[in-house]
Amino acid sequence: MTRDDGDGRGVTPSLTVADLLAAVPGLANSTELLTRTLATAPGASLGFADVLAAMDWARQAVDDGAAAAVLVQGTDTLEETSYLLDLHWDREQPLVLTGAMRSPGQPGADGPANILAASAVATAPSSRGLGVLVTINDEVHAARRVRKSDATAPDAFTSAPFGPLARIHEGAVVYANRPRRWAALPRPTGTHVPRVALLEASLGDDGALLEAVCDAGYDGVVLSAFGAGHVSATMADAVSAAVEHVPVLLTSRTGSGSVLSSTYGFTGSEQDLLARGVVSAGWLDAHKARILLWSLIATGSPLRRIREVVAARGGHPGGPGSDLDSTMDRWRKRDSQ
């Protein structure tokens, strides 16, 4: 992103890959690079098709002999695009994403350092087999954990509550933990682009938005609920109606920690919602849960498969009292019609 001083506007996307690499002169001298400008768009304007197209390019690059691939993008959607890529990345070679919190014209611009660090992570033998990684501010994050938790700070990206996987120390990549690698999901290939709504619980929420989403024909819903997975009693009634038509995933709006399964028992509690047929996303935050649900729906997964995959990747079972069988019966009847 750069600014045209003559037009009075803020910074906008304008730099090509050649421009970015020109700011990191040592990189070309130490690594053989194959580069391409895939798009020039702000992160907020990226869509699922853009991300999957970038993955196809990266796949082809490593299949043609590249040791790894690095994607540079705007940071607004980095926590979502990286997880979408991670769900479908089926190569041992690392795919590393990075970006910048300060534009090239600002003092202390971090883009060149982040590109150099991402390249170091991509080419490190210890990065193989870890799926998609996010490297920024000299930290390495797992795609399924990373969140943008500050609007402007250089250390905007965090991985609460477990922390980053590694740090860049004197140019070397030092890993502290290595998360489990899941088998890649099939790449969505159909023409249907699912619509998955993300709704956040708020004070006085009566469930009207959830009802409107279902009436509008959305394919799935993620609830970003209070605390450990709670909504109002009125909202709980809307949830009961919603699960009759679409999968509903339950997450916490706190951004850290897991949805509970059997601690609270009031109407609208996690135990009550599980009994109504929602799917607990466990440790996944709402944005990651939405990406996962989108991918599963896009590849034609039935409700039982959605429950199994979300429970496994969220690290959370359905929970005691979860009315799986009756919900499955309702969905089988709907699918047979």
UniProtKB/TrEMBL annotation:
CDD domains: L-asparaginase_II
Domain Asparaginase/glutaminase C-terminal: 195-309
Biased composition (Basic and acidic residues): 327-337
Annotated keywords: Hydrolase
Database matches in PROSITE patterns: ASN_GLN_ASE_3
One protein family per Pfam: Asparaginase
Keyword Hydrolase appears in the UniProt entry: yes
Native organism: Pseudonocardia alaniniphila
Listed InterPro entries: AsnASE_II, Asp/glu_Ase-like_sf, Asparaginase/glutaminase-like, Asparaginase_C, L-asparaginase_C, L-asparaginase_N, L-asparaginase_N_sf
Recorded superkingdom: Bacteria
Similarity comment text for this entry: Belongs to the asparaginase 1 family.
Protein name, UniProt field: Asparaginase
